[in-house]
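Running co-folding for beta-L-rhamnopyranose.
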Amino acid sequence: MAKLLEGKVAAITGAVSGIGKAIALDYIRHGASVAVNHFPDEKSASQLQELQKEAGEGANLVAVAGDISKPETGQELVKAAVEKFGRLDIFVSNAGVCQFADFLTMSPDLVNFTISTNLNGAFFAVQAAAQQMAKQEPSGGSIIGISSISALVGGAGQTHYTPTKAGILSLMQSTACALGQYGIRCNALLPGTIRTQLNDEDLADPDKKKYMEGRIPLGRLGKTQDLAGPAVFLASDMSEYVTGAQLLVDGGLFVNLQ
Ligand code: RM4
């Protein structure tokens, strides 16, 4: 396989499970050194051990635990990447939560938790990455925000969540404008219904799962691995003139109104 990220340094938030983990493993396969962030709890620590095993002995991998909603977490992740690998070429803002809930009875705590993790967390982490990319010699890099099909459509049980995904898309558009002068590209990936821990509960309902599968032209729910190739493309020089863009990775779900 041609290695498209040879010698590059990447940092990814929420990277020990789901989409973030799939991207981390593919970046390593493509020759990148990777700094991964994960939530500071037992479950994530054991998921990190799994990731390290799958990445293999020779992988250039460093891990930083931290709650992404805290501004210092993004700073610590970037610092670890630069201290270990010398610079930062790629940053994937992926960490996110989605606890499905009824709009009329949703608690302020759940609303604030979701917004501070998904949107504020993305803002602060992207800001930390851009500060590094702008000051390093040569300056520049590729920032990828993991938004969602939910930036473009609603979800009855996701009224607190979909605005954060629309916010991440918009953040990539505005940072693309602000950071082009430093040679920093900012783009959004919009996953469709991908099987991750975020929808384990929602898709445990066989009728819901069957309904979603029926609406997808490619006939299956997404796998986390389906996001890896698009993330490698946006990280690599193959997309050197792409910034402020959005890429749906949804099996055709968005365009299929059946
Ligand atoms: C996505 C989309 C999917 C859902 C996940 C949790 O944005 O709405 O359908 O399963 O969130």
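Result summary
The pocket of beta-L-rhamnopyranose is lined by residues 98, 148-150, 155, 158, 165, 193, 198-199, 202 (CB under 6 Å).
Strands lie at 9-12, 33-38, 61-65, 90-93, 141-146, 184-191, 246-249.
Job closed.
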